[in-house]
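Proteins fold reproducibly. Next comes an illustrative record:
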Amino acid sequence: RRDFLKAAAALAAPLALPVELHGEESKSPRGGRPNILLILTDQQNSSMMSCAGNPWLQTPNMDSLAASGVRFANAFPGNPVCVPSRWAMMTGVMPSRIGMDTNRAEVTLPPEIMAHAMGRVFSEAGYETVYGGKVHLPGAFSDVSVYGFEKITNQVRDELGQICADWLRQKHERPFLLVASFINPHDICAVLPENPAAGVEKFSWLADMIRPPDGVS
């Protein structure tokens, strides 16, 4: 995993396609290296897209990405739990290596691992590395700067998409890695009957959307 991060930062040029900024191909001295946008969604498995054959969902934007790229239908995270899974993605190291198996695991994060976190690897390769949205990484290491990123927003829902779009339209002198980390579809958990969590009223509009019609249980 760590070797993959290094290879992605240093050797991605043969896979690069022009990224359009300001309506034309970027004139930045990127040296042939691609700009990278990493979009994360929360609690969405591979079947939760209409392009995956799910009849209950309409995901046209994700379908468009899948149609113009590659969709991996048999892929697995480093851990099924949020914090260990995200940490594995950001460091390229299996969380089991340091005994991280829950969101609240008391662990020590070795400096030699953190030195090779995703943002740091790309930054050392000359990339501008920025992060927007949900973090949810372990304890004192929940600041994305530890992973080599600059935080551009704490927004995690619809506002995040607009903020990232505005950032992408700016002029960039270096190739960039932008992580856009959305909280949804996680919000659905707040309206489940068996989860009367505080703040449910905040999502009453969502509960109304998914409430079965009269006569349907």
About this structure: The longest strand covers residues 128-133. Confidence is low (pLDDT under 50) at residues 10-28. Residues 37 and 178 are 5 Å apart (CA to CA). The longest helix spans residues 158-168.
